[in-house]
Model the fold of this input.
Amino acid sequence: MHASTTDLLNEIEQFSFHQSSDLDAFKNLFLGKKGKIAVLFEKLKDLPVEERKAFGAEVNRLKDVAQQKWTVFQQQTELLLDQDDQQKDFDFTLPDVPGRSGSRHPISLVKTEIVQVFERLGFNLALGPEIEDDWHNFTALNFPADHPAREMQDTFFISRSPDIALRTHTSSVQIRTMERLKPPIRSIAPGRVFRNEAISARAHCLFHQVEGFYIDRGVSFKDLKDTLYHFCKELFFKEIEIRFRPSFFPFTEPSAEMDITCLLCKGKGCNVCKQSGWVEIGGAGMIHPEVMRNCGIDPDEFTGFAFGMGIERITMLKYQIKDLRLFTENDVRFLNQFQAVT
Ligand code: DAH
Done:
């Protein structure tokens, strides 16, 4: 390349645009009638014939480069000016467009409602860690060392020996509260729990429970039934039936599973209640003496009941939701329906 064209190419490339007036400056400097490229074209006629063709091609290329650089900046400038114009036309005194407000998640709404019913009965809110040790999640709750619930397929372990895992139920908070307080204790503990389960319409690896318990002198199974019956009537605002089926949990004796009338079919039988008219909402029972001892409470002096309920299940019944996955998919069409409730 000829030295003069190389120098000019560098100059063109190094030119930087800062403001719209630079467009004219660039044009005059390089592309105008008296610009630097025109000067080179002038030189053409003084060159020997055999050099003219190659030099002419170089200068033409320079012109293309300069023209292209100018066009790119000109287009950008136009865009910016358009935006400026739009902003000038905007009337900043216009009133605000009423925006859609967010809504609380149905699980959160129902959790709050459950806690409020129990708070009115004198229960205190308790919270515990989601990452738990073996003692609080299993051992203190009287789970035998070989209990299947401890196994890998149910529990998300974070480490082994010492075993640290994502809590599989909120009963761990019951232990922490019993260790901390002296009876009488009335405690309600909502929270997230984790189990290694395949996700489907009826099961999830992450869900919510609420744990409650009451320890005092002379607490009986009747108190448990009355409390939970009262709770169901408060929460669902309708004539609802509740039934207890004998069951087993290592931390309660006797133990029961609690069913309530299926509200989706009003007890007639549907897919959700497997045609039985009843749906299980949780487990309950009288706190096992061994669990009391593990937490330093004398079972000869005190008795207590405990219960654990699934918040998803209760929410599904309350709002006629048929698929558990809706709670975690964050579909705004689903979530927006709870705006009125918030
Ligand atoms: N922790 C039990 C579960 O996750 C539920 C439960 C049953 C809690 C009985 C209790 C209880 O406090 O007494 O399946």
